[in-house]
Amino acid sequence: MSTNEIGVTARNIKRISRLDLPGGGQIIVDGKYAYIGHMDPPHGTSILDISDPKNPRVVSTIEHPDNYSHSHKVRVNGDVMIVNIEQYNRHFLRLGDRIPELRASLEAELGRAPGDADLAKALKVKESDIPGLGEAQARGYNDGGFKVYDVSDRANPRQIAYQRTFGFGTHRFDADADYAYISTEMEGYIGNILVIYDMANPERPEEVSRWWMEGQHLAGGEKPTWRGYRNRLHHALRQGDRLWASCWQGGFRVIDVADIANPKTIGGYDYHPPFPEPTHTVLPFPFPIDGKDVAVVIDEEHAPHPGQPHAFMWLFDVTNVEDMKPLSTFHVSEADSPWSRMGERFGAHQYQEHFSDTRVFMTWFSGGLRVVDVANPLLPEEIAHFIPEPGKGAKTPQSNDVDVDENGLIYLMDRINGLDILEITV
Question: How far is CA 167 from CA 147, 236, 303, 419, in A?
């Protein structure tokens, strides 16, 4: 069967509608509106009216003035919307920072000025990439941070604050009515750390405190045990007086923020190695399951290695945060998606960041949406799935983010193109 003959693959889920939209990094549903942070500039943030889920419509969009930044994450509390500002294509472009040093070392080694081919070989990139990397290095990047909008009029978002941070800027983050929990680079540190901002006056965010993994604070004399920014904060989610922090290639940490000015690490679990994929999100259920406090941990399919497992979901017993233990895992077989071997990402990525029952709604890139019931935390059971067709311009579906509204409707965002609004039938 050719790829253009493959349609929707679904079990116990039906599609209500589909909207042609630029790919998204995050979707948040709040009341009759959905907020989407787009992956690729110039697309920034879209606000959708979803009061009629059969006919969702875009009511406003915010675009970037250039292609240097993207805003692929978004949070909303009441009439306040926060979006990240992060360097677009950041990891690749930072290779350009090595060019001046490489030119000098290669000239000494070769006895001549190195050409683009020499630099490309040293950086393991294409020769045609070198001019763009050089331009980015010369230009620098000072726009990273987050922006705050008044969205009381959803058709006309109004920027009310722009908080610059440092380096790449802000990645995924959490926010509530009082604080924003920002994952960002900061001067003096290696890799993203947590910076907490007081949002009592959303026009003037004020830094309250910072948290980081031991080894990140270079200016404070700490020395990482890893190379570069391999280990760093991905993002931290608040539940009660605790933040649950996913740490890239470093497992997860539990942070006590009862005193918001003095975050304290009170627990952690790192399963790297032997598992190759980085930790993306961790959050416990707000109620016990089978007499235990249970957290869902999901890794991100990033750079799969033949012979190694794809990224998957974990369940942890977090009843005692000083002695947390894995309970079970959930995997999707390559045989469970017609797109799994088409050369794009196949594996876990993200789930809805709130729970009302024991169901977990997870995006699995070319494995689509998987719905897993964890009522038995020792044996998670898939009860439904939905794999859409590829979005416009895409080779495969790349289901990237999901949210579930108060009525149980599912909003599935593709990384490349397309939003599906779905209903579970079990």
Answer: 16, 19, 24, 31
